[in-house]
Amino acid sequence: MPSHSTAIVGNGLIGALPRRERLQLLANCDTVDLVLSDILAEPGQRIRQVHFPIDSFISLTTPVNERACIEIGLVGNEGVLGATLMLGVDMSPLHALVQGGGRSLRMDARRFKAVLDSTPTLRRTLGRYLYVTMAQLAQTAACPRFHVVEARLARWLLMTQDRAHSPHFHLTHEFLAHMLGVRRVGVTHAATALQTRKLISYRRGNITVLDRKGLERASCSCYLANNAVWDSVMGQRPAPRAG
After folding, report:
1. In 3D, which of 23, 74, 31, 22 has the Cα closest to residue 52?
2. Tell me: the pLDDT tens digits for 126-151?
């Protein structure tokens, strides 16, 4: 199991805390391995654990009907799953699924609420984080109305690469269809278009970003808008690894 000294560097929210608050938070966490496709939260169910991803990342989706859902966000080592507990609401608003397996710092929800009372910097940081999350959710809600599938796919691939910290990652057609709220044939057409332009390589769900700058140009404006909100409120993000 990795030491907490590794985890301090691994999660940006924790790493930015003053030493006393950082150590207090870490003392109440366990380092766990998240497995691909594990469900960490369901809409309307009680939040029992809080996760600070290290080298894993989590997909956030909302149901559209009984058979369909759409992805509205991702949580990687820049953030936290379960921050809404600080609002006094212990019910999850979203479905949370592990999209990239790896390590995470896990804390019991009761301990998390107790720690919040004695860590003012953490409370302020999470308040800013929730503001950014709401702004990004609003952007995501508007995106499908104004942007074509190819541009939206480019955006989500960039977001995934940012959290995978690698130009190589795995996403199935079915998962991409959920992510974009379109049929699988729409994903095929969009992915083929990006591959024809030599921006990505896509085979049997294995994706490689070949041209990061080109993919950014192909993406809809929501990608840069979301990053601008994050940078202005939370501070500069680390540069992603290029393809």
Report:
1. 31
2. 999 999 999 988 888 888 888 999 99
pTM for the model: 0.88
Question: Each residue of 193-224: b (16+ CB within 10 Å) or e?
Answer: bbeebebbebeeeebebbbbebbeebbbebbe
CB 44 within 8 A of CB 62: no
Sequence spans of domains, the chain: 4-142, 147-234
**pLDDT value at 66 more than 70:** no
Where does 147-234 sit in CATH, by number? 1.10.10.10
* CB proximity list for 131: less than 8 A, separation 6 or greater: 233
- Three-state SS across the chain? CCCHHHHHHHCHHHHCCCHHHHHHHHHCCEEEEECCCCEEECCCCECCEEEEECCCEEEEEEECCCCCEEEEEEECCCCCECHHHHHCCCECCCEEEEEECEEEEEEEHHHHHHHHCCCHHHHHHHHHHHHHHHHHHHHHHHHHHHCCHHHHHHHHHHHHHHHHCCCEEECCHHHHHHHHCCCHHHHHHHHHHHHHCCCEEEECCEEEECCHHHHHHHCCCHHHHHHHHHHHHHCCCCCCCCC
* CATH architecture of residue range(s) 4-142: Sandwich (2.60)
